[in-house]
Write a structure and sequence with these properties.
The chain has 156 residues and is mainly alpha-helical. The chain has six helices and three strands. It binds pyridoxal-5'-phosphate (PLP). The site of pyridoxal-5'-phosphate has 6 residues, from loops.
């Protein structure tokens, strides 16, 4: 929270915009979802980018933008210049899903599934790979917060 406030202060000091690219924010497995920078943004400098790719369907490539009306106007202008518009059919499919089902409930459901997969992956990394010393996978595991010191010198 303090880091977020500090980032907004720095951006304000240098009068910089911030792009808050947050496709995974709703898939947090532990703890509370922290407030978005956009929700703390008092002077309209944050552009929040959300995605349905991780929560609904990757292939549709749908997302959303939340920004001040001034930034949004510029954003729409640039987007139309680059791709004319997002597929109407894909938007309609998502709209129908949201009419018929509760997206928040769906996200809660898939969070359990993804958490199970994440836990299994972490366990498998620990069991299968961490015995091999000085491998790239050990370094990756370390960056994932797995303690591999006890296993690093064991047999391969
Ligand atoms: C950090 C980050 N931002 C944006 C995206 C793009 O999401 P989308 O599938 O909605 O284009 C991804 C996709 O994996 C991502 O990892």
């Amino acid at each position: 929270m303090e880091r977020r406030e500090r980032l907004l202060e720095i951006a304000a000091h240098y009068d910089l915009p911030i792009v808050e690219d947050n496709p995974y924010g709703e898939l947090r497995f532990e703890g509370e979802i922290p407030p978005s920078l956009r929700s703390m943004d008092k002077d309209g400098r944050v552009v929040f980018l959300g995605s349905f790719s991780k929560t609904f369907c990757p292939g549709l490539r749908l997302g959303w933008v939340n920004a001040s009306p001034e930034l949004l106007e510029k954003y729409i202008f640039v987007k139309q210049g680059s791709d004319l518009q997002t597929s109407s059919m894909a938007q309609r499919e998502l709209n129908m899903f949201m009419d018929d089902y509760d997206l928040d409930k769906h996200i809660e459901k898939i969070k359990h599934v993804y958490k199970k997969r994440r836990d299994l992956m972490m366990e498998t990394i620990k069991m299968s790979f961490l015995r091999k010393p000085n491998t790239l996978i050990q370094k990756v595991a370390y960056s994932l917060g797995l303690n591999c010191q006890n296993t690093s010198t064991q047999e391969t």
